[in-house]
Amino acid sequence: MTSIKKYVGDGFVLVDKPINLSSHQAIKAIKKLCTGKIGHSGTLDPFATGMLVVSVGQASKFMQYQIIKDKTYSASLQLGIQTDTQDCTGKIIKQAPIPKIENATIHNTLLTYFTGEIEQVASKFSALKHKGKPSYKYARAGIDIPEKKRKITIHGYDKVAYDPKLGIISFQVTCSSGTYIRALGEDIAKKLGSYGHITQLRRLSVHPWQPESMHLPSKFQENTIQNFIQPIDMTLLHLPRLELSTKEIEKLKMGQWINAANDSIDNSLYRTYDTKQKFCGLVRCKMPYHKPQKMLISSNSPKDKA
């Protein structure tokens, strides 16, 4: 049996997660084709589809330095029915006739109550941790845990439409990271005087990537996976750039500090690049020095600072 030649490198791959697959199952193709650590951020429920950001190699250690990521979703909200999971996979717990609602009322409700910074109670079936375990594990076991409230930001809605015969509101929403669309849908339905649950959910984008950057798992193949690797520094462009000499880069990778320029900003993080414009990692300014924060290292290099 011929062994697969795996990609050796660092970066991100954007998977278009199919329906009825867990996020873990959706990245199996990447694990087979790439070496090093493989992980993902922003878990999608099995019934949801769309963009899943997968980190390859050393990319995961830079994720904590990313700017808060805005995300865009398309969703369908069924009025008149509430489920215990807030989506189509749960059990019906409340039901009522579909209310008569005007499109103008829906638009006004979204703008007035669900735009800007709002407080949201996370779904009990979310992946938020309680005493080290995901909330959904307690929910599936029938164990009640304290509600977790968080502030989120809704930037706006697009393509809002309502089918009065089916009682379905469809919309696109751009929101801050950490927003639970299932919880948002149920809250919108309540404000409209009804029950509701999400029947369709697709993540269209995660900043800074656009929909055309993601691909179904079946698209990734041996000898072509490198064509889909997104560079690490795309998620770090909010940090100032610093070009350094080969000698300075080598010192940083060895854990040594280097002299900082006089115009460097104390305690700031910088993206570092070598003379070939290759991203090499992050340094923090501690005047009059730059010290390594997170550097891309080779297998025989010392580990960088936490």
Give structural notes:
It is a single chain. With 306 residues, the protein is α+β, with helices and mostly antiparallel strands. Strands 1, 2, 3, 4, 7, 10, 11 and 12 form an eight-stranded mixed β-sheet that branches. The longest helix is centred in the middle third of the chain and has 11 residues. The protein is elongated and about 70 Å long. The two termini are 41 Å apart. The mean pLDDT is 90.
Residue fraction in strands? 25-35%
Structural class: alpha+beta
Low-confidence residue ranges: none
Given the structure, what is the number of helices?
A: 6
What is the straight-line distance between the termini?
A: 41 Å
Q: What spatial form do the alpha-carbon principal axes imply?
A: elongated
How do the helices and strands line up, and which of them pair or pack?
Layout: E1 11-17, H1 23-26, H2 28-33, E2 38-41, E3 49-56, E4 71-79, E5 81-83, E6 92-95, H3 103-113, E7 116-121, E8 129-130, E9 133-134, H4 135-140, E10 149-163, E11 168-175, H5 181-191, E12 196-206, E13 241-243, H6 246-253, E14 258-259, E15 269-273, E16 279-286, E17 289-295
Parallel strand pairs: 3-12, 13-15
Antiparallel strand pairs: 1-3, 2-3, 4-11, 4-12, 5-6, 7-10, 8-9, 10-11, 14-17, 15-16, 16-17
